[in-house]
Amino acid sequence: MSPIITSIAGLAATLTGACAMLLMLELRGNPRKDSKANQRLIRAHKVTGYIFIVFFIVIFAVMLSKAGTYQEEFSSRTILHISLALLVIPLLLFKILIIRRFRRFEKQIPGIGLAVFLALFLLNSMTAGYYFLHESDIDRPSLSEEDAAVLDEKKGQKLVAQKCGKCHALERIFKALKTDQGWTEIVNRMISFDTPNISESQGKQIVNYLIIQQKRREKLAAEASGASVKIGRNMVEQKCSFCHGLDRLYMVNKTREEWVRTVENMIGYSEQADFLSPHEKEAVIEFLSSLSSSRSEGAK
């Protein structure tokens, strides 16, 4: 869950808690003579209380899952944050027990409710408040010429495995095709999700590695495509010339989809199951498509 969503959820929980506390003060400190009005206030207090508990459980679960992924020692602010969240749990349990079973202690409920609200208010001031005040200060790495001296591909590869691999399969990364700016933006977004586990310097190493590995993949793909075209030319000269001259292939201009259908038809006409292997078929289509592309560019 992104920081902005958890921050908004925390603010919503605080506002719900404030409403529940105000309704409780109204019931205890300013009771209505009209019993129906009091009943409406009681129902409203229960509803806001249940909503508050749901918000708190969700936020607490997210906090625990995020704390489990921390790879550095907790900061003092994080420790205080966790302590306040843990404090709310027994206070809520005591309040629910008094309401449900130990009615003799009902006079303590306003104090417990106020303690819960204050703990939550401080907790969210340290998280949501801190995030909204300092969101613009979060380091968003981008590569510059000055970084070239410290960038190391092996460090970047190791960081990608450590930092990125803990949340999703690395296959997603190595299948993606992005511009240099695209990789920078995606890494910045991941840093905002995983603060403080990824520093600015680590982010730069990750961006550098992702850009390098994509350029390497593009080079390999170009080399593989060139090799495929050569194989396709050999297959055309060997297989197609049995039935007709090759000039009709070199003169016609078709799209890749049309060449796919043509090659499939020729395989059917040959009445040979092994006329072309799947790899050879793809190579022939690649070669014929490259001819059409070259003619189209020449016509322009």
From TrEMBL:
The keyword Membrane is assigned to this record: yes
The protein's name: Quinohemoprotein amine dehydrogenase A, alpha subunit, heme binding
Pfam family, one: Cytochrome-c551
Bilayer-crossing regions: 6-27, 47-67, 79-99, 111-133
Keywords: Heme, Iron, Membrane, Metal-binding, Transmembrane, Transmembrane helix
GO MF terms held by the record: electron transfer activity; heme binding; metal ion binding
Domain Cytochrome c: 151-292
Signal peptide from the UniProt entry: none
Record keyword Membrane present: yes
Source organism superkingdom: Bacteria
